[in-house]
Each structure stands twice: as structure tokens, then as C-alpha cells.
Design brief:
Blueprint (H helix, E strand, L loop, with lengths): L3 H7 L6 E4 L27 E7 L4 H12 L5 E5 L3 H10 L5 E4 L5 H9 L4 E10 L1 E5 L7 E2 L1 H8 L8 H4 L9 E5 L4 H11 L9 E3 L2 H9 L4 E5 L1 H6 L4 E3 L1 E2 L6 H6 L6 E9 H6 L1 H21 L6 H14 L1
Parallel strand pairs: 2-3, 2-4, 7-12, 8-9, 8-10
Antiparallel strand pairs: 1-3, 4-13, 5-13, 6-10, 6-11
Helix pairs in contact: 1-12, 2-12, 12-13
Membrane topology: Lipid-anchor
Subcellular location: Cell membrane
Protein name: Phosphate-binding protein
């Protein structure tokens, strides 16, 4: 298997993934079997197309899985857009995709729309994440923030927020905010656990592409942002992560739940009819569940206990 953590830390994750295997691999030497291939390598060669969309937070895991799967089933094309959790669900509801990546649980209104559209689905949790608050590397005053500090900073109250408003010993400089867009599951999660559904500061720059947020913080000493843990790890040489309530996000604190309240689950929602009717999609989802834990760890997230992946595989098998 490729060293995906090294790959992620030396290249930016793109804003869209269109990864498949068609043609180029046929002229190269066959890949050696690896333990990550699971049972898929012993199955018949498949052909077909699989389409997904959704969370940019889940994207690094999906990118790694799709690239590795291309070496196993090189006639299956898997294309995955990154339009945010909410945007991904919109396409899922419209019947445009086979699966939808999500960095939050599906909302009741999305469930209702899927039911109205006649789309049955299955939820698969594939990893855990610690939503990371980051500042510029040259920021030498912020080390730790409380949840109350975050509320004071990020909730719109009609004032121009300055660092000195949070701590009078900090600079009297305006804070520059970067946030995931409103279609992002990361935004929704932050809205739920930090903002309590109050308005986000109006001065914030919003983007569904986490790389835009990374670059914004890299370029401004007074900037602050929040996004998935893997994006921080990929850029930790140029960003500074902030402790929340005295706890830094790490694999250990995310897995234990000590990094609270910003630890969260990551999901893939799969269309049941596509799993039953498209062998290529079923095979890709099987590969995903067999390898998601290792891929999650490789790109900077936290794997689930093996029994959770086993349950997901059992749920998948029941749909075959």
C-alpha cells in the first residue's frame, strides 16, 4: 500500500475527486497482493461506474480508497465530487449518486426527502474525526481556548471581534475568520455544538473547499479557522492547532472522547437499490468497509473498533 499519510502531507487534497481505473494500469506490472485488498482480489473482474459526492472532510479517506481500489478492479470507474455534506445529500436525494459522504448524521428533513423520492439507504460509519481549530503559525498568543471563548469569537453580535476581546493581554487586532461553507457537515457540527444555531460572524470567509481555509490561515497572522483533523495534519508545518478546554486533538484524545465537544463520526450513506443492482458499487462498498480503518489512520483520522466494521459488512451482506 502507498504511504498515504506522507502523500497527504506533501500534496493538497483537491476540491474534487475523479479517480478511476481505465486503461493506464493495463500496461503496468500487476500490483502485488496486499492484506488491504481483502477478499476482493479473489473475485471476478468487474466493470462499471460508481458515483458519489459529499463531505470534504471524508474526502481524504475516499481518495485513498479509490486510488487503491483502482489497482484491484481497474475496469471500475469511481468518481467522487466534494460539494460538502449538504450538497452531497442534495445530489443523493436527486438520484444523481450511489453514495454520499457525510461529516454529520443525516438530518430529519433529508430523511423525509429521500423517503418522498423513494430512495432507501444504509448508513455506514467509517471513522472518527476531531474538528480542529487552527491559527497562523506566527500567532504566539493563542494556545488554548474554551468553548465559551469560541462562542464569543464566532457568534455574530454586531461588533468587530478583536483578539483582545477574548483576552486583554492579546493584541488589539481584528480576528480574521475562515469557515467551512453552510453546505458543509463541518459547519453544521460547529453550529450545533458551539454556535447553538446562532449566526456565524458575518465577516467570515466561507468555502466548501478546506484547502481555501488552510491557505487563508497560512497567509494571515490574525486568522483562525476550523476543519477536519486530517487537513490540520497535512499542513501542521504551516499551521498551529489550538487546544480546546486544555485538550489538543490527537488520535488518542479523539478516540477516547477527551477532545470534547469537537470529536465526531464520519459516514458514508449508500443507496440500497444501487448496492443490489450494481455489482461494482457493492464491491467498492465492501472494499471500503474492509479497508476504511487503515485508510482513516493513514490519512490522519481515527479508525473504529473492528467490530464496528464487521457490523457494517454484515449490514452490507444483508442487502446483497
Amino acid at each position: 500500500m502507498k504511504n498515504w499519510k506522507y502523500f497527504l502531507m506533501t500534496t493538497m487534497v483537491g476540491s474534487a475527486l475523479v479517480l478511476g481505473a481505465c486503461g493506464n494500469d493495463t500496461s503496468s506490472e500487476p500490483k502485488e497482493e496486499t492484506e488491504t485488498a481483502g477478499d476482493t482480489q479473489d473475485e471476478a473482474v468487474l466493470e462499471g461506474q460508481v458515483a458519489g459526492d459529499g463531505s470534504s472532510t471524508v474526502a481524504p479517506i475516499t481518495e485513498a480508497l479509490v486510488e487503491e481500489y483502482a489497482g484491484v478492479q481497474n475496469k471500475v470507474k469511481v468518481s467522487v465530487g466534494v460539494s460538502g455534506t449538504g450538497g452531497g445529500f442534495e445530489k443523493f436525494i436527486a438520484g444523481e449518486t450511489d453514495f454520499s459522504n457525510a461529516s454529520r448524521p443525516i438530518k430529519d428533513e433529508e430523511k423525509t426527502k429521500l423517503e418522498e423520492a423513494g430512495i432507501d439507504y444504509t448508513e455506514f460509519q467509517i471513522a472518527n474525526d476531531g474538528l480542529s481549530v487552527v491559527v497562523n503559525k506566527d500567532n504566539d498568543w493563542v494556545e488554548d481556548l474554551t468553548v465559551e471563548d469560541l462562542k464569543k469569537m464566532w457568534i455574530e453580535d454586531g461588533t468587530a471581534k478583536k483578539w483582545s476581546d477574548i483576552n486583554p493581554e492579546w493584541p488589539a487586532e481584528e480576528i480574521v475568520f475562515y469557515s467551512p461553507g453552510t453546505d458543509s457537515g463541518t459547519y453544521d457540527y460547529f453550529d450545533e455544538v458551539i454556535l447553538d444555531e446562532a449566526d456565524l460572524v458575518k465577516s467570515a470567509t466561507l468555502s466548501e473547499d478546506d484547502n481555501v481555509l488552510v491557505q487563508g490561515v497560512q497567509g494571515d497572522k490574525n486568522a483562525i479557522a476550523f476543519f477536519g483533523y486530517a487537513y490540520y495534519l497535512a499542513n501542521q508545518d504551516t499551521l498551529k492547532v489550538v487546544k480546546i478546554n486544555g485538550v489538543e486533538p490527537t488520535n488518542e484524545t479523539i478516540e477516547s472522547g477527551d477532545y470534547s465537544p469537537l470529536s465526531r463520526p464520519l459516514f458514508v450513506y449508500a443507496k440500497n437499490s444501487a448496492l443490489k443492482e450494481n455489482p461494482a458499487f457493492y464491491d467498492f462498498m465492501k472494499y471500503t468497509l474492509e479497508n476504511a480503518g487503515e485508510m482513516a489512520e493513514a490519512v490522519g483520522y481515527v479508525s473504529l473498533p473492528q467490530e464496528d466494521y464487521d457490523k457494517g459488512l454484515a449490514d452490507l451482506e444483508a442487502l446483497k
